[in-house]
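Hi there, hope your week has been kind to you so far. No rush at all, and the record is pasted right below.
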Amino acid sequence: MNKKPYRPGPKRPSNATRPRGRNRQMGGKNDKDTNPINDEIRASEVRLVGDNVEQGIYPIEEALKIAEGQELDLILIAPQAEPPVCRVMDYQKFKFQQRKHAKEQKAKSTKLVVKEIRFGPQTDEHDYNFKLKHAIGFLKEGAKVKSYVFFKGRSILFKEQGEVLLLRFANDLEEYGKLDQMPVLEGKRMTIMLSPKKPGSGKKKEAKEVPEAAAQQQDNTPDEE
């Protein structure tokens, strides 16, 4: 059986360069989750940024040489720009910073919680105080409070009474939450929304008012003979 003659594939040109930085580790991630690096970049020229780099527009061959000279990677970070923007940086360090930034952003974007409290137009005092206590707890936990009066049947005739009830509720919660909107009637519901106040916001105002009151009292004190 005759063996087929060996035909070597095309050789890489001797003048072609490739940075000696670390290549990406194929961990099973999609290409959409990664940034093209080194000779994966197809642009003919790029805008170069990074530490210890003279920023500007370079032909891709020169940009690769600059990255190779620092034993780092050429990373495409803004492919939609004209020309595309590349950073000279260690690829693994770049990915670590991306993960860290994403984690910080996730921690900042806390889930918004809205708690609802329902009243009738003729809520008695005991029920009112019970729901007021719950609203204080919700606002202290950082949740928003949506409070509404539900008018059933002919009780819509008492909508002024419902508005007074909601405004009283907002006033009693002034220390813990701020009123986002005045009572609004939508169908059979009249609604208000309260957002939690930042801790200490009320105390600072109170602390500021006390010295002023003390100073005024001191000014009104008659001088001793």
User: Anything to note?
Assistant: Residues 9-22, 25-31, 202-225 have pLDDT under 50 and may be disordered. The helical segments are 60-69, 91-108, 125-140, 159-172, 201-220.
